[in-house]
Design goal:
Helix content is 17%, strand content 31%. The chain has 8 helices and 20 strands.
Length: 390
Amino acid sequence: MDRVILRTGKPTDPVGATAVPATREDPVDSRRTPLHAEHEALGAHFTDFAGWRMPLRYDSELAEHHAVRTTAGLFDLTHMGEITLTGPQAGAALDHALVGHSSAIGVGRARYTMICRADGGVLDDLIVYRLGDLEYLVVANASNVAVVHEALVERAKGFDVEVADRSTDYALLAVQGPASVRVLAGLTDTDLDTVKYYASYPSTVAGRSVLLARTGYTGEDGFELFVAPDDAPHVWRALLEAGKAHDLKPAGLGCRDTLRLEAGMPLYGNELGTGRTPFHANLGRVVKLDKPGDFVGREALADVEADTTLVGLKTASRRAPRHGYPVVDASGAVVGEVTSGALSPTLGYSIAMAYVAKEHATPGTGLAVDVRGRREPVEVVALPFYKRNS
């Protein structure tokens, strides 16, 4: 596949990624995406996340959540970071740097993977797109762009490859939900029925060049559009207009978090971090111990014996367990900790993800969450909580 070339706007500071909004304050130096004026015009409520001023919601987080589950939602994800590796040994460099087998990714395809420390702790979870024989695009989380870029530069030493943070070259939009194909169909000549899951295609949307990927973080079918910053407002408005017939809603980071939680998708800083390995998070499948050559963290990951594991928790009430709450057994002994929790808009009851000792991880096990000294009963359930109909 030919390299995708996007027209770039005025360079800005490096960007970053995806997570729960941290604060509603408005730091003077927080970055604005190329779509900031569009969000203001729509009456968005903003939050600061990883140094970016991002839409938290436009009207109702609940309505935005239900739109993604039933029709479609439109997200601005420009805060995520894009790093390219280009050269004859780009694949080999990524094989050494990451836990996955990047050189085995076909041109035009993508793969979920992780970058780990030497001790196996997760530095970040990533999506790697192979844009061409000699070029890869690594998408990193907002708060970790600098860390990932620095690690890739260091780990690529000795390989014939150029590593570049190209985050300022891209804006990133996502259309998610069962109507996403119908929303996009009238704006592109690409046959969307042929666009495979975890694949990317050079395309045009609303007359602008994009890299069109069928990926997402909501548990629904959908697309992510990598577009030049100057073209982002035009594409955003075209998607909103096309989406009117399909009840598409602009959607913020608030509903994005409840959507990914229902789908059992981990969030860096909650379920993932340097203190745990992919195996703790039940994501050992991304670690390719049998790939040729060595990679950073291989020795540690080959010897992992995780004594805790990530599980789902279901409550009988609408009171949601929160991040950091202890999980206890019948005797009151602490056996784990909640990593994420919320009232599920789709299911109508509260759910959470938590790390618990393996002997308490069997679905159907009764436990409790310590909520400021009061025990709220929970049941261990298999992840994900929600799975869309194919």
